[in-house]
Queue: 2 jobs
Job 1
Amino acid sequence: MSFYVTTPIYYPNGEPHLGHVYTTLCADVIAIYHRLAGEQTMFLTGTDEHGIKMVKSSADEGIEPRTLADKNAAVFETVWKDLGITNDDFIRTSSDRHKAGATAFVQKLIDKGDIYLGGYEGWYDEGQEEFVTETTAKDNEYKSTISGKPLVRYSEPTYFFRLSNYVPKVLAAIENGQFRVEPESRRNEVVSKLKQGVEDLSISRSSLKWGIPLPHDPEHVLYVWIDALSNYVTALGYPDGDKLKKFWPADVHLIGKEILWFHAVYWPAMLMAAELPLPKVIFAHGWWTSDGRKMGKSLGNFIDLPRIRDVIQKYSLDALRFYMLRAVPFGNDLDWKDAELANAYSELGNVVGNLLNRTLNMTAKYRDGIVPAVATPVDDASLAPALNGMELAIAGAYESLELQRAALLPIELARAANTYIDQTRPFTLAKDPAKAGELDTVLNRCIQAIYKSLVALLPICPQRAAAGLKQLNVETDGKTLGQLLSSELPAGHKLGTAEVLFPRIEPTTTVATQGAV
Ligand code: MSP
């Protein structure tokens, strides 16, 4: 089985910020899960380097677009490495391999008879690189709905793609489930906009030089969105090659909600024209605000790279990943709050860290650190459903991209096990030799619970979950997540020694120990 997940390719006109980090971390969680599930996984990210936005940003800095792109594409690549992102490839649209693939893609549309010469006269949002209809422009006082900056009037000869021919087919494909657009509320917006009718799409610029020349008329460069969308196949070696065969169609295109239209309408139409299969899922997640307001450099609430690095240094990368996923049901808008980040970290420590600590310490104290076999039956109604249902629940959460659920399932299991300890009182059982069989059972169930909780946490908190499993003396290499979650640690297995997994962080960042029995 293969699995292909992508992020948008980002404009390298500055450093990555919270929004870019969010999409990339979420895609990373998905990729890690599928690798652990035993699937051959391809995770792609990259940079979208052509277009007017890059030209203007580079002019502001007094440098060439290519220089700006080289500089910041390198920053993106380095940041992803620093953040432990497990992308398998990084595509740059200024690279030869992309240019060759994108040119072949456009040639295919030309050969199909789907491209014709016309003229564009209308509004353009340069920040979004988006053509805007007269009605929308007027409704928004001729300003960008995203940046608020004035729209620019364009009038130039341009080639068009016969998008209108494909709109009924795209609509049908969404409605009959040929590809999924999620979440549902956003899918419905796309469907209703499609039903209002869509005009042909301008796909070239004759007044711009920074781009990929059209093969049949090099005076025009390819519209940056057509150039960019094709990255999802050029990175696989389009028009042919083993990777394309193995990984196309993509399983998930993960994007932010503001670029859903491009992905749910233009991209499938282009793929239909190029006679390629459609991606399976296009998932548009929500947008981050910060302390209830749109993030802005001048507002002082911008979560930029230095701020993200501080957070990681204080709480760890795994805590940032957990916070971002547990914050809201995946797909909803999000609001950054330092207090919620601190709470998310405490939750990891108080629930998962604490269970690991209690379980290891009790087993060391009462059973020499050796997993006892289940003996006398003990009521485990508070624990059994979460414990026994974990394998299916995790698979279901990732299949339906309920990433918040995927993040909370391991916590809920650990919480249930902590409650079970409070109810069964193993420290009292240990005082009575007649209760040894019950104590064996309780310890065994707690060990299985922390083991499964940590396994399920592997995609979300890869480092800490692996460190916890090491304390349990568990070797995960070569085993799939399904195998790990469907098995139990056998009686007689020797556990390791307890170390604090999530050290308590005081407001002053002093580190103290946490979680004794
Ligand atoms: N280059 C295009 C994408 C082309 S894909 C074929 C682009 N680039 S971008 O640099 O502007 O990145 C946009 C993406 O960054 C969003 O889709 C989203 O994934 C992420 N985010 C940027 N700001 C964001 C927030 N404030 N909140 C959440 N994610 C946002 O668009």
Note: Confidence is low (pLDDT under 50) at residues 510-517.
Job 2
Amino acid sequence: MVGSRLVGGRRRIIKILRNMKKDTPDLLEKIVSLAKRRGFVFPSSEIYGGLANTWDYGPVGTELKNNIKQLWWKRFVQSRDDIVGIDAALIMNPKVWEASGHLENFNDLLVECKKCHNRFRAEQVDLQAPCPQCGEKGKFTDPLQFNIMFKTFIGSAEEKANVAYLRPETAQAMFVDFKNVLSVSRKQIPFGIAQIGRAFRNEITPGHFIFRTREFEQMEIEYFIRGEEWEKYFEYWRKEMWDWMTRDLELDKKDIYEIDVPENERAHYSKRTIDFEYDFLFGKRELYGLAYRTDFDLKNHEKASGENLKYKDPEIGEEFWPHVIEPTWGVDRSVLAVLINSYCEEDGRVVLKIPPRLAPFKAAVFPLLANKPELIKLARKIYDDLRQKFYVAWDDRGNIGKRYYSQDEIGTPYCITVDFESLEKGDVTVRDRDTMKQERIKIDELAAHLENKLK
Ligand code: GAP
């Protein structure tokens, strides 16, 4: 959460060192290489030599990411009666960031190497050790505060009056739009506002693939409650977040750690924060966060804007600033956790055992041979029919073994092969990604069979 970046200091360094598990860079390298090879994630602007720590999602990565976002939206917005969604602008009135405290507080502690002038997060370098970039020893500056919001200018004149910022979190729009949302949705407390969208932070040392980037996506909920009930709702959202991680993303429970963030490391607005850390391949690091933001945000935006942002109880007429519980999820860290959790090497193959509901393709269709028009015709028909219901891949290159190999690496749960028997008997082979078992299924029962399996 925001505050953990504000305090830094020795305690934090010790915590990070303690959390460093045996480095497994090989496995991360393998995942990065697979991600590029199969079209999950590419280095951005690669034809121009890339841009440090900037990544693009390729065709299957976009599907995986969208499936995560859609599952989240369905679970936390559409299937509930108490949460509504918004999609706000990325560049907001700069006064928002004054009132929220970001202009003053959204800082990283950095040190600079006086020789090569590279900057590092103070918590991530040992000041007594050589500079990780140029190897010079004893050249680090004292730690300095560095505001990590991205600055830009509105209009053509680059002057102070025109300064604006790319939003560093999606959360503030939910507070700034509180009054409008309340009046159109007519929700009563407790209720929430949700948003999925991009956030930007000028991170000093991004890294570890898509774990820490300067442009990323968040899925956030601001849940408005009565102050006296905060503990009850904090506990409720804690359980919801566990449920999302272990049931929806199917992450292994033993890789998730709940850290109660101590007061001196919490954000300026938070009275209690839990970080959910995941055992990424480079150590235990924050995956998601949960904070009790008190009534800090609405109160400050009311003070700064002059608009009444109180909630009026319809029954007793009492007016008050709602308090807020904020569960927050990073989309890109979700993708990375799912990739790590699902990566397996077994039986001479690499397989991504992605939960079927999240897998980019639900099935792939192959004609046994690419030069037999009768097989192609039937396989194409099956492919076209299935595509009405599921996102399905087509592959007629190379031999069947190679096609299985590539679908396993993408994480496609089922591969369907149309062979000569299919022409006679009207059935196909369906091969299960995880067990590699094959069964014959009637073509006219195929869609229902897959639907049932994918439930
Ligand atoms: N509104 C609260 C807030 O923004 P945060 O802990 O700073 O809290 C929330 O960010 C989530 O956003 C994190 O738990 C993480 O998943 C994700 N996140 C934060 N910074 C990120 C970065 N530089 N790159 C990728 N994801 C990031």
Note: DSSP finds 15 helices and 23 strands in the chain.
